[in-house]
């Protein structure tokens, strides 16, 4: 019942789960300034403070906050997956890359990186677009063709947003086939109720602790 | 949109029936229907035609295009053309589906009709997918596809709108215009 | 790392969104609130001597960012649960299964009750003759009456024309579509098509 939910495509939403998870991905940082009493964030040292030159992998949300504008507390570097070496792999054959393993928020996190004023931002933006364009046909055909086939091998290498896309394609395909077989006339149990009952039957209902 | 909703829209299309009863005009919100005279053809909405047929109150006269010679030509034309060719009805798929389900005996060579329509549909859907792929790979910001029917559009709607959203974001990345659209939240 | 516990809440949402509602994680929420309070206290204590001390000021900013991140995760946790509960109103109907209700916190139960009431009031005001049930005819209706079979015992049921029928497992009935659509969606009746 998609009509009653917040559209999944809108990632600028404060409450968006994917946006929160994507902004948790790690970015390599070097501290330009001393930070008092927060040495415990660096587990490789017992120093009380975070000293100048400390290297830490910080979640994106924190890295950008510390880097932003006049604050300039850290200098950020491009994460490995978005550096030239990987970029060449993506452009060579986008279809063989396992974006789930490398992501799973390959595009969303990649887009966020562009706000960090990295020297290779332009190349990153370019590779995100090219990778998607290169993979698009396979995702579309995969989601529109296989009706009953096992799809896990196809979807397991997809990035999170690609999976949403794949699911949308599957949804339309199933809807159309149900219509073709005249199954849409039949009123059916709502999806949530059916799921709920299934879980209850196999005893997998999470019990309150 | 659910295909059932598209079908609902298609059910407003007029088809000709030959009733086996006689009755005055019926006045409905959606328009007047009838009068019915036994044995005389009259145009009614598809939903009513199907309903009357189910109750053995009429014979349905299939639309002119629902016959094998025309459809064979149409199929050839569709296969030969790079673009979509105009279809004889904006709801050709739904009409075929409903008439062949409820009034098979009124459609000559029904099985052949069914196969031909399905072939034409498949040709068009394959074309639609290639166009979509071409569009996504190009630098174009808009595309125009003529003569697509609602049901055809509906099969790619969810996928396409999501894909275009995604593309818009990625293109914005390249031109630098989407900086603002990446959330500034912590 | 800071704000890790709050992220656990988000991961929990991600795991459970598709089917049901996970138990309201009161314990984890308390831990997140404690972390926020700690960070806030530390910042307050240092604020008055931070002037001119860049390293103290930097630390205050860093802690502040962590507080905001925690806040975002907490609010997202609560918001997405409410969204889920709202969807459930449309799928399960006005009475939720007991195990779902059991997993809601008190405020969520209150919210659900109020949402229920507002929806009912709103539907009552549509049109002139007693309102319109928006949760009905989710698909274009085809027939006035439908043939149904009971999937489970449901007891007595009074039809609009005043007859009382017994909805007993495996019994079949010919009912007005409008009066049994809810029971079909709730999985008590099965719609039989030719």
From TrEMBL, chain A:
Database matches in Pfam families = PSF3_N (PF22466), Sld5 (PF05916)
Q: Could you name the domain of life of the organism this protein comes from? A: Eukaryota
Q: What is the lineage of its organism?
A: Eukaryota, Metazoa, Spiralia, Lophotrochozoa, Mollusca
The name of this protein is: DNA replication complex GINS protein PSF3
Instruction: Say yes or no: keyword Nucleus present.
Output: yes
Gene3D superfamilies, sorted: 1.20.58.2050
Keyword hit for Transmembrane: no
Q: How does it assemble?
A: Component of the GINS complex.
Domain spans labelled DNA replication complex GINS protein PSF3 N-terminal: 15-66
The protein's location, in the record's own words, is: Nucleus
Organism whose genome encodes this protein: Aplysia californica (California sea hare)
Domain named GINS subunit is located at: 82-180
Gene symbol here is LOC101853420
| Keywords linked to the UniProt accession | DNA replication, Nucleus
Give the protein's function: The GINS complex plays an essential role in the initiation of DNA replication.
Q: What is its main location?
A: nucleus
* Homology family: Belongs to the GINS3/PSF3 family.
TrEMBL record, chain B:
Subunit arrangement?
Answer: Component of the GINS complex.
Q: What is this protein called?
A: DNA replication complex GINS protein PSF2
**Residue limits of the DNA replication complex GINS protein PSF2 N-terminal domain?**
2-61
Q: The GINS subunit domain covers which part of the protein? A: 65-170
Q: Which keywords does this chain's UniProt record carry?
A: DNA replication, Nucleus
Q: Where would you say this protein principally sits, based on its record? A: nucleus
Q: Give the similarity note.
A: Belongs to the GINS2/PSF2 family.
Domain of life, per lineage:
Eukaryota
Q: Which InterPro entries match?
A: GINS_A, GINS_bundle-like_dom_sf, GINS_Psf2, PSF2_N
UniProtKB/TrEMBL annotation, chain C:
Please report the stretch or stretches of sequence annotated as the DNA replication complex GINS protein PSF1 C-terminal domain: 142-193
Ranges of residues in domain GINS subunit:
48-126
CDD domains per the UniProt record, alphabetical: GINS_A_psf1, GINS_B_Psf1
Q: Does the keyword Nucleus apply?
A: yes
Q: Which Pfam families does the entry mention? A: PSF1_C, Sld5
Q: Which UniProt keywords apply?
A: DNA replication, Nucleus
Q: Which InterPro entries match?
A: GINS_A (IPR021151), GINS_bundle-like_dom_sf (IPR036224), GINS_Psf1 (IPR005339), PSF1_C (IPR056783)
Q: Give compartment(s).
A: Nucleus
Please give the family membership noted in the entry: Belongs to the GINS1/PSF1 family.
Quaternary structure and interacting proteins, as annotated: Component of the GINS complex.
Function, in words: Required for correct functioning of the GINS complex, a complex that plays an essential role in the initiation of DNA replication, and progression of DNA replication forks. GINS complex seems to bind preferentially to single-stranded DNA.
The entry's protein name is DNA replication complex GINS protein PSF1
Record the organism: Aplysia californica
The encoding gene is LOC101847602
């Amino acid at each position: 019942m998609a009509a009653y939910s917040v559209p999944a495509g809108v990632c600028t939403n404060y409450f968006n789960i994917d946006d929160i998870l994507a902004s948790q991905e790690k970015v390599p940082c070097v501290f330009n300034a001393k930070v008092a009493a927060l040495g415990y964030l660096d587990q490789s040292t017992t120093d009380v403070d975070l000293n100048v030159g400390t290297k830490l992998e910080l979640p994106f949300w924190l890295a950008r906050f510390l880097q932003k504008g006049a604050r300039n507390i850290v200098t950020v570097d491009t994460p490995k997956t978005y550096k030239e070496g990987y970029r060449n792999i993506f452009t060579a054959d986008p279809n063989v890359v396992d974006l789930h393993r490398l992501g799973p928020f390959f595009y969303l996190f990649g887009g966020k990186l562009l706000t960090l004023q990295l020297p290779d931002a332009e190349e990153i933006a370019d590779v995100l677009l090219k990778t998607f364009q290169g993979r698009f046909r396979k995702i579309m055909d995969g989601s529109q063709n296989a009706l009953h086939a096992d799809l896990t091998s196809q979807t397991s290498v997809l990035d999170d947003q690609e999976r949403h896309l794949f699911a949308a394609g599957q949804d339309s395909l199933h809807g159309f086939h149900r219509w073709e077989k005249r199954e849409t006339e039949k009123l059916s149990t709502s999806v949530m109720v059916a799921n709920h009952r299934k879980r209850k039957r196999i005893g997998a209902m999470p019990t309150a602790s | 949109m659910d295909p059932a909703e598209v079908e609902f829209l298609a059910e407003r299309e007029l088809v000709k029936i030959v009733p086996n009863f006689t009755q005055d005009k019926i006045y409905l919100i959606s328009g007047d229907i009838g009068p019915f005279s036994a044995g005389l053809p009259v145009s009614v909405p598809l939903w009513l035609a199907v309903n009357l047929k189910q109750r053995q109150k009429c014979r349905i006269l299939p639309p002119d295009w629902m016959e094998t010679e025309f459809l064979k030509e149409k199929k050839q034309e569709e296969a030969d053309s790079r673009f979509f060719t105009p279809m004889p009805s904006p709801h050709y798929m739904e009409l075929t589906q409903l008439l062949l389900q409820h009034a098979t005996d009124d459609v000559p060579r029904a099985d052949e009709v069914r196969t031909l329509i399905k072939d034409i549909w498949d040709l068009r859907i394959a074309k639609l997918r290639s166009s979509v792929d071409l569009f996504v790979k190009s630098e174009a910001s808009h595309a125009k596809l003529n003569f697509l029917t609602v049901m055809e559009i509906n099969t790619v709607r969810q996928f396409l709108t999501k894909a275009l959203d995604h593309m818009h974001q990625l293109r914005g990345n390249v031109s630098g215009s989407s900086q603002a659209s990446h959330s500034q939240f912590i | 790392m800071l704000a890790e516990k709050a992220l656990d809440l988000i991961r929990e949402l991600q795991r459970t969104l598709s089917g049901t509602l996970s138990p309201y994680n009161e314990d984890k929420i308390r831990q997140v609130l404690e972390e926020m309070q700690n960070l806030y206290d530390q910042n307050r204590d240092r604020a008055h001597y931070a002037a001119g001390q860049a390293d103290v000021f930097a630390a205050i900013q860093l802690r502040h960012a962590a507080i905001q991140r925690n806040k975002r995760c907490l609010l997202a946790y609560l918001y997405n649960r409410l969204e889920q509960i709202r969807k459930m109103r449309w799928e399960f109907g006005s009475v939720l299964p007991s195990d779902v209700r059991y997993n809601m916190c008190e405020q969520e139960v209150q919210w659900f009750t109020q949402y229920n009431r507002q929806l009912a009031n709103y539907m009552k005001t549509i049109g002139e003759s007693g309102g319109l049930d928006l949760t009905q005819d989710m698909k274009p209706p085809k027939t006035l009456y439908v043939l149904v079979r009971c999937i489970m015992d449901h007891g007595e049921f009074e039809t609009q024309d005043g007859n009382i029928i017994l909805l007993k497992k495996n019994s079949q009935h010919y009912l007005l579509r409008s009066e049994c659509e809810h029971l079909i969606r709730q999985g008590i009746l099965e719609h039989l098509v030719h």
